[in-house]
Amino acid sequence: MEIILADHAGFCFGVKRATDLAISLAKDPEKPLYTLGPLIHNPQVVQRLEDLGIRAIDRVQDVEDGIIIIRSHGVPPRVIDEIKARGLEVIDATCPFVRRAQEYAKQLAEDGYQVIICGDQNHPEVIGIRGSVNSEVLVAKTLDELPQHKLKRKVGVIAQTTLSIQNFKNLISQLVERVDELKVFNTICTTTEERQKAASNLAKKVDLMLVIGGRNSANTNRLVEICRNEGVTTYHIETADELKKEWFENVQRVGVTAGASTPNWIIKEVLSVMSEFNEEKKVVLTEEGKHET
Ligand code: F3S
């Protein structure tokens, strides 16, 4: 059996940056450390951070003293103000690409555009972007989800960083027929696009795809959807414990990819357990970019 690891599988820049920052603070903690919400959407990493003394909290009010780490998704500025007003310290690990989306949204509103975020309104990143703007912000993935009567003559659109480019293009092409002026900032993170493209390409070449990542991770779920859309059997797992030997019977080539919040150590564990399943067969592990077909 040949196991092919997709390009760009695993931690993205922003998640790695936030996780490294949290771990480095935990080495010599001067005060209790907290993250506002789980640092990343991966239960195993969150558990590891907790073992290092970094606790995830839901509300700023739950903390009397300490340092609060803001995760890569970012938060509305009023949350930072609230933390400081309570006399707590803030370490802001908001991904610079998310920060850029917040700034574009703010700028659009200041220039008189009706701001639309193409994304999921319950996603923490979208909540943070929305909170960075002083006027009303609409959030939708499709034109049907938008309250049409609220569309102004001038509309400015940005995207949730993990959105699929196709989804963004669809909304833009529908909006362009409805409004007089449309300004668009493509805030989709290229890492996401690259990871999605690599997963889709690999899914075309293999008999089975494995997607590793938290079930609460939007970008991991999206990878699963992309692979399934290619018509290949796809399993979503969080850890190596979920692997089943029978999945690999009569399978020649397996593709593996992982979400932006999946650490390397989990990917390695999965690859190693898969290799053990196939000890009687030759297992070849290749990286997609270096793979010859
Ligand atoms: Fe940042 Fe892109 Fe990751 S926006 S958090 S590098 S998916």
UniProtKB/TrEMBL annotation:
The active site is at E125. Dimethylallyl diphosphate binds at H41, H73, H123, S217, N219, S261. (2E)-4-hydroxy-3-methylbut-2-enyl diphosphate binds at H41, H73, H123, T161, S217, N219, S261. Isopentenyl diphosphate binds at H41, H73, H123, S217, N219, S261. [4Fe-4S] cluster binds at C12, C95, C189. It comes from the Bacteria. Catalyzes the conversion of 1-hydroxy-2-methyl-2-(E)-butenyl 4-diphosphate (HMBPP) into a mixture of isopentenyl diphosphate (IPP) and dimethylallyl diphosphate (DMAPP). Acts in the terminal step of the DOXP/MEP pathway for isoprenoid precursor biosynthesis. Belongs to the IspH family. This is 4-hydroxy-3-methylbut-2-enyl diphosphate reductase. The lineage of its organism: Bacteria, Bacillati, Bacillota, Clostridia, Halanaerobiales. The gene is ispH.
